[in-house]
Write a structure and sequence with these properties.
Number of strands: 0
Order of helices and strands: HHHHHH
Structural class: mainly alpha
Radius of gyration: 20 Å
Oligomer: single chain
Helix content: 55-70%
Length: 197
């Protein structure tokens, strides 16, 4: 628990998670393209593996995803400065319990909501596999969100047992982040209309 009271720990942990997520996204994307080359060959575009029904949209998305927007980094900086600000307040008598909850919430928000564990396995990552039709893609998206909700519930149960064993406020912050994550997934699931086959 001593590291969370160091002012450099939270910014380094957050930046580490952000860069790890980017690395895992690139690695997963390149392995997907390698797998796709075995099944799909678009004439004249052997380097770019693009499902036939999504050629134009895929190219537009690639242009947009190349760089993270200024807003993304701005929000991350605000969050880091906020945690550092609360840390400064703890030096002047602010409740350390509240600071621990904020730290746990912040780290869990990055770890669970950005779904870093999910990038280690393709089962959590939604992809429009070559040969899929619109209804199958919708079902796939629904399945992935439902799986993420189950994953969040498992983590929530584990953290709840840890909390009962330790009564750590950092773990309590993680529990709050997971509850919000389940709520957000429920909102996304409610907006996906399943195909009427």
């Amino acid at each position: 628990m001593g590291l969370i009271y160091q002012p450099w720990f939270i910014p380094l942990a957050i930046l580490g998670m952000v860069f790890l997520r980017g690395y895992l996204e690139k690695k997963e994307s390149s392995s997907y393209e390698e797998d796709a080359k075995k099944y799909v060959k678009v004439e004249g575009l052997e380097e770019k593996i693009i499902p036939p029904w999504r050629r134009e949209e895929k190219e537009k998305k690639e242009e947009k995803i190349k760089k993270r927007g200024i807003g993304f980094w701005f929000l991350n900086l605000i969050l880091i400065f906020y945690v550092l600000f609360v840390w400064l307040l703890t030096q002047r008598g602010f409740s350390k319990n509240v600071y621990e909850i904020i730290v746990g919430f912040t780290l869990s928000l990055y770890f669970f909501y950005l779904d870093i564990p999910g990038y280690f396995s393709n089962i959590w990552t939604y992809r429009e596999y070559p040969g899929g039709v619109k209804g199958e893609i919708t079902l796939s998206k629904h399945f992935v969100f439902a799986s993420k909700k189950n994953e969040a519930k498992v983590f929530l149960m584990i953290l709840s047992f840890y909390y009962l064993g330790t009564f750590s406020n950092v773990i309590l912050g993680g529990i709050l982040a997971l509850i919000i994550r389940i709520w957000l997934i429920d909102r996304r699931l409610s907006k996906i209309t399943l195909p009427d086959w």
